[in-house]
Write a structure and sequence with these properties.
The protein is of the alpha+beta class. It is 36% helix and 20% strand. It has two domains: 2-148, no CATH class; 156-255, 3-Layer(aba) Sandwich (Endonuclease, Chain A), CATH 3.40.960. The strands form four sheets. The protein has a four-stranded mixed beta sheet with strand order 8-9-10-11, sandwiched between helices. Strands 3-4-5 form a three-stranded mixed beta sheet. The protein has a two-stranded antiparallel ribbon with strand order 1-2. Strand 8 and strand 9 form a beta hairpin. Helix 3 (92-99) crosses helix 5 (123-131) and helix 4 packs across helix 7.
């Protein structure tokens, strides 16, 4: 499979973002670093892999004119780039800052949560990078979402729903809320929830239809109901229905006596 001129991935090797980048790196200028959506994908963030591959090159470098390669010219500090399996890629903090000029706030939170979850980002590194980003495109949004990021969010939908609720006038939900039995032992966790009012939010992707996972869900939901939890279950169609999600959570909270 041809990635770009002079760079190929063997048909014996699966074509992945990582294999495409390793092939392309051999024909790129010295000092090139994969960046933006390409970096986010390499770091495990939930972004679509779309061509072209994006790279940063330092000023004065030959700017490659290649199909499937988009080049950005800029100076990066040494700590704004890392090596990932031998592939140079912008750091988690730099990648989040770069994408803050492109992504909607909820998607940016999903990327940031994934970078935290994967160990590519923490609050100190993010604060340091944003502290010297004055004037950068997207920095205002990046600084706004930075306090919301958490490694506890387990998936893109959970991150998106959490942002919608935090951005509404509802109380802020807690990720991975522990559910206790009558002896005080943790028997389950809810994707999102409000322990004070025992309202839980669950996102059910395709894996929840698998037999083993379905059985686990039944056990978990029955344990939660036995302890008085009200469980709201959402799926992929709700990712395009922000108002419906917020309204249903608001109704559940009011039914439990919540006021705000």
């Amino acid at each position: 499979m041809r990635v770009t001129r002079g760079a190929y991935v063997s048909r014996a090797v699966p074509l992945t973002l990582a294999s495409a980048c390793r092939a392309a790196e051999r024909v790129l200028p010295r000092g090139s670093v994969f960046s933006h959506l390409t970096a986010a994908g390499l770091l495990g963030a939930p972004v679509p892999h779309v061509w072209p591959l994006e790279i940063d090159v330092p000023p004065g470098s030959v700017r490659p004119q290649r199909r499937r390669i988009r080049t950005h010219v800029r100076n990066l500090r040494p700590d704004d780039a890392v090596s990932l399996g031998g592939v140079p890629v912008t750091s988690g903090a730099q990648t989040l800052l770069d994408l803050s000029a492109r992504l909607a706030p909820d998607e940016l939170v999903a990327v940031g949560d994934a970078l935290f979850r994967g160990g590519h980002l923490d609050q100190d590194r993010l604060d340091e990078r944003l502290g010297r980003a004055t004037g950068s495109r997207g920095v205002i949004l990046a600084r706004r979402v930075a306090p919301l990021l958490t490694p506890l969010a387990a998936s893109r939908p959970e991150s998106i729903f959490r942002y919608w609720l935090v951005d509404s006038d509802l109380p802020d939900p807690q990720p991975q809320v522990p559910v206790l039995d009558r002896w005080g032992q943790v028997v389950a966790h809810s994707d999102l929830g409000y322990a004070r009012w025992k309202v839980a939010l669950e996102y059910e992707g395709r894996q929840h239809a698998e037999r083993i996972q379905f059985a686990r869900d039944l056990e978990r939901y029955s344990l939660m109901a036995a302890d008085g939890w009200l469980v709201l279950r959402f799926g992929a169609p709700h990712l395009h229905r922000r108002d419906a999600v917020v309204d249903r959570v608001a109704g559940a909270l009011r039914s439990r006596g919540a006021r705000w």
